């Protein structure tokens, strides 16, 4: 009996050791009465769990990487799609008018506000550049490319729409004046509360003549006329009043005679211009005729007086402009001078199509009336291609320069204009 008990205890101990060394897993997936039992060794189960963990982590990394790639591809797709749609809108943009300027991207760079002091803020930019190939009749010629202007604008309209402002800077490289003197160009605020009138305060383009006081973006040729280059085309700080009616318009103002922020009020200057429009009541049936004249008088170290006359006519695709200027001293781009100078030019244009325009100009200028036989005459023939109105334009000019005191020359200009 004792032997039987000892054998029984030994058998039970052996079974307990087996349970400690092995794990019994019951497979209950079989619904039959027979229950299958599988024994898995602990070491093998441990290795299997580690392998599963590695597989899960690797799968997670792959899923995360795939998600990041998908996000990047989606972002690139959205950017490319937006650029494509933007370029398509610019390509299909209808811009046939050449008497106005607007940036190609101005609709996208304009912000309107429902609250606050501003109704609207708009930024845009302008670029002009030209290849200049000059061939003198004697001597060596040269070819250069010059960025004529780089203008960056901020235009704003205050709440109510009656007041607005403009700030324009010009980082174009210059060699004849300091960077900061050239940098700030337009800086003015204006109001239109008086019917038919605009009252302006600040720095703006003033002077005598139509071409000399016009923005460069609507000029028909690469260069201004000689008289406009030398006797006008300058900005000054002051108060001006502009009126516009169907039969008459005018521009009067008082300014500091300083230019390019060199000095604080070295003297006073008056600018006045009056245009008469005889056909203003005919609604363009017989075309548009404008005749005008004005003066610029002031003091900066010395007295100066510049006068001018203008006549212009437009009818359908044809237009013509005539202008005469005389300066008994002047205060323009090169500063004050006592020199008596005068200039006359006539420009003609014809639009073959809304995008293609032919231009011709006769330009005569006497830089110093006290010196005989020193006239400078320029004969220009040009063609303009308005890809998108004035916003995207190509210009080709041929100029024959005839100088009484120097060698005559031929000049070929290829100009580009981009307004964004």
Short description:
The N terminus is likely disordered.
Question: Any overview of this molecule?
Answer:
The protein has two domains: 1-92, no CATH class; 110-419, Porin (Beta Barrel). The longest helix has 50 residues, at 42-91. It has a 16-stranded antiparallel beta barrel. Strands 1-2 form a two-stranded antiparallel sheet. The protein has 420 residues and is α+β, with helices and mostly antiparallel strands. The protein is built from four helices and 19 strands. It has helices at 2-21, 42-91, 179-183, 226-231, and strands spanning 23-27, 36-40, 110-112, 118-136, 142-158, 163-169, 184-191, 197-206, 234-244, 248-256, 268-276, 288-300, 302-315, 318-332, 335-351, 356-366, 376-390, 392-403, 409-419.
What is the strand and helix layout of this fold?
Blueprint: H1 2-21, E1 23-27, E2 36-40, H2 42-91, E3 110-112, E4 118-136, E5 142-158, E6 163-169, H3 179-183, E7 184-191, E8 197-206, H4 226-231, E9 234-244, E10 248-256, E11 268-276, E12 288-300, E13 302-315, E14 318-332, E15 335-351, E16 356-366, E17 376-390, E18 392-403, E19 409-419
Antiparallel strand pairs: 1-2, 3-4, 4-5, 4-19, 5-6, 6-7, 7-8, 8-9, 9-10, 10-11, 11-12, 12-13, 13-14, 14-15, 15-16, 16-17, 17-18, 18-19
């Amino acid at each position: 009996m004792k032997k039987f008990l000892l054998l029984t205890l030994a058998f039970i101990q052996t079974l307990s050791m087996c349970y400690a060394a092995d794990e019994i897993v019951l497979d209950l997936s079989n619904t039959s009465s027979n229950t299958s039992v599988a024994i898995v060794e602990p070491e093998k189960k441990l290795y299997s769990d580690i392998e599963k963990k590695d597989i899960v982590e690797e799968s997670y990394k792959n899923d995360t990487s795939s998600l990041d790639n998908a996000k990047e591809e989606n972002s690139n797709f959205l950017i490319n799609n937006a650029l494509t749609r933007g370029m398509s809108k610019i390509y299909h943009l209808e811009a046939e008018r050449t008497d106005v300027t607007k940036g190609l991207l101005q609709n996208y760079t304009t912000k309107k506000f429902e609250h606050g002091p501003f109704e609207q803020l708009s930024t845009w930019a302008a670029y002009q550049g030209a290849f200049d190939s000059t061939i003198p009749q004697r001597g060596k010629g040269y070819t250069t490319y010059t960025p004529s202007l780089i203008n960056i604008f901020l235009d704003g309209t205050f709440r109510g729409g009656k007041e607005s402002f403009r700030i324009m800077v010009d980082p174009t490289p210059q060699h004849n004046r300091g960077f900061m003197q050239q940098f700030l160009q337009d800086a003015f605020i204006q109001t239109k509360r008086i019917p038919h009138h605009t009252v302006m305060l600040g720095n703006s383009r003033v002077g005598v003549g139509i071409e000399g006081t016009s923005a460069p973006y609507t000029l028909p040729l690469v260069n201004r006329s000689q008289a406009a280059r030398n006797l006008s085309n300058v900005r000054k700080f002051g108060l001006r009043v502009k009126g516009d009616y169907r039969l008459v318009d005018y521009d009067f103002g008082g300014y500091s005679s300083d230019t390019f922020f060199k000095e604080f009020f070295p003297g006073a200057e008056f600018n006045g211009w009056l245009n008469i429009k005889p056909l203003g009541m005919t609604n363009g049936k017989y075309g548009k005729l404008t005749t005008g004249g004005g003066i610029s008088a002031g003091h900066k170290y010395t007295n100066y007086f510049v006068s001018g006359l203008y006549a212009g006519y437009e009818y359908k695709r044809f237009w013509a402009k005539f202008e005469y200027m005389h300066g008994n001293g002047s205060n323009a781009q090169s500063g004050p001078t006592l020199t008596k100078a005068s200039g006359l030019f006539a420009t003609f244009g014809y639009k073959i199509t809304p995008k293609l325009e032919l231009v011709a100009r006769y330009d005569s200028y006497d830089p110093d009336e006290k010196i005989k036989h020193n006239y400078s005459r320029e004969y220009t023939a040009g063609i303009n291609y308005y890809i998108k109105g004035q916003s995207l334009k190509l210009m080709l000019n041929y100029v024959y320069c005839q100088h009484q005191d120097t060698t005559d020359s031929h000049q070929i200009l290829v100009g580009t204009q981009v307004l964004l």
